[in-house]
Amino acid sequence: MTEAIAYDVVVLGAGPVGENVADRARAGGLSAAIVESELVGGECSYWACMPSKALLRPVIARADARRVPGLRQSVQGDLDAAAVLAHRDDYTSHWKDDGQVGWIESIGVDLYRGHGRLDGPRTVTVTAEDGTRTTLTARHAVAVCTGTRAALPDLPGLAEVKPWTSREATSADHVPGRLIVVGGGVVATEMATAWQALGSRVTVLVRGGGLLERMEPFAGELVADALREAGAEIRTGVSVRAVVREGGTVTATLDDGTTLDADEILFATGRAPRTDDIGLETVGLEPGSWLSVDDSLRVQGSQWLYAVGDANHRALLTHQGKYQARIAGAAITARASGVPLLETDRWGAHAATADHDAVPQVVFTDPEAASAGLTLAEAEAAGRRVRAVDYDLANVAGSGLYADGYTGRARMIVDLDREVLLGVTFVGPGVGELIHSATIAIAGEVPIDRLWHAVPAYPTVSEVWLRLLETYRG
């Protein structure tokens, strides 16, 4: 029997979250190993954030240019789809992880290639592709950073259809003539935006009443209007009952009995945790489950197991996962050093408070939709006494300079008892770059009276802050 190799911290998953946990552990003076069965860099680098935004950037740039007088005439042609796909390939490093592996090595973390499974407390067994097994033990912590995978509906014969998930949608090497997109969330709207602009005839099928239903209602409405104007068809209140593929054609049967043909079908219907085959049962946890954690990202009831990023279901966003990784790394290091955690310090180094109060998100559609904190519905459901303040972004001086016919909307949610912001939503061209100011205001609990003295530069779209505050003051 091979002797186990001991580390202070063992990390399952070498995506951005796992990389950051390992990095923070090493920065705190701990030894660390990281285990990865696929590409180092994870979902974000190869099948999510980077390739999707590489596909969308030319789409958004062309749309913005077409709204500028004197420039629109120069950008009336079609996108060069081959060049866009090649640019996407460059951003994914052509699905090679040499650079990421080099970074792991540069910070002094040992990388183990293979499938990692818990094998009892503080123990991980790694099975390499050639079947060899290595046992790792953790003196202080094992961090589960295995992320999520696409959740597919239970439809007969779906596997034989070979549907697209987010992975295929971001890595496809051709533009399908007809594309069905099932879902109305972030992946669905971004991929509908990208592929419609690249030349597909897109039909979006939404089970609910509209797009982006976790954001303020106007966000989904404005994005839907733009998709329709671009040529996409959006059907709401429908579900797919069956799917078959004959030759190169996919036929979807809807719950009303109608059928729809396409060359490809993308299911963007949610995410599931990649925790089904990591040995959770060996430590008394349910395989395939989301892992419940405290604010230091330690799994409830455990003294050594952490779940960081998507696996804990707190906020399925890369930037929040990396934030959690910094918190977890600090907590693991503090506990290993015998330093007491200031768990009562809500905004301290060991508490992932922003997961509750100040989560930012940008949907890179045209127009962009960006939010931080709570929506009006969420704030009211939480029992807060609030007021929603709305403003038409078209009436901000900077928006008219940004684009002819600028269409957009802003909303801030004010806690009337404390006079601070609980949430902000912007929808419109370029608003993704506004959202960090909202995140700072929410996380910093900046009083409204203090925000009044944060003067936005003129003439910029950020002048909307002044207009929102003026509207609130009346």
CATH class label of the largest domain:
Alpha Beta
The CATH architecture assignment of the largest domain turns out to be 3-Layer(bba) Sandwich
Helix percentage range: 25-40%
Q: In percent terms, what proportion of residues is strand?
A: 15-25%
Query: What's the overall geometry?
Result: globular
CATH topology of the largest domain: FAD/NAD(P)-binding domain
Q: How many domain units?
A: 3
The major sheet is characterized as: 7 strands, mixed
CATH superfamily of the largest domain: FAD/NAD(P)-binding domain
Radius of gyration: 24 Å
Mean pLDDT: 96
Task: Quickly count the helices.
Answer: 16
| Strand segment count | 21
Distance between the termini: 76 Å
Low-confidence stretches: none
Classify the secondary structure makeup into a structural class.
Answer: alpha/beta
Protein name: NAD(P)/FAD-dependent oxidoreductase
EC number: 1.-.-.-
Keywords: Oxidoreductase
Enzyme class: oxidoreductase
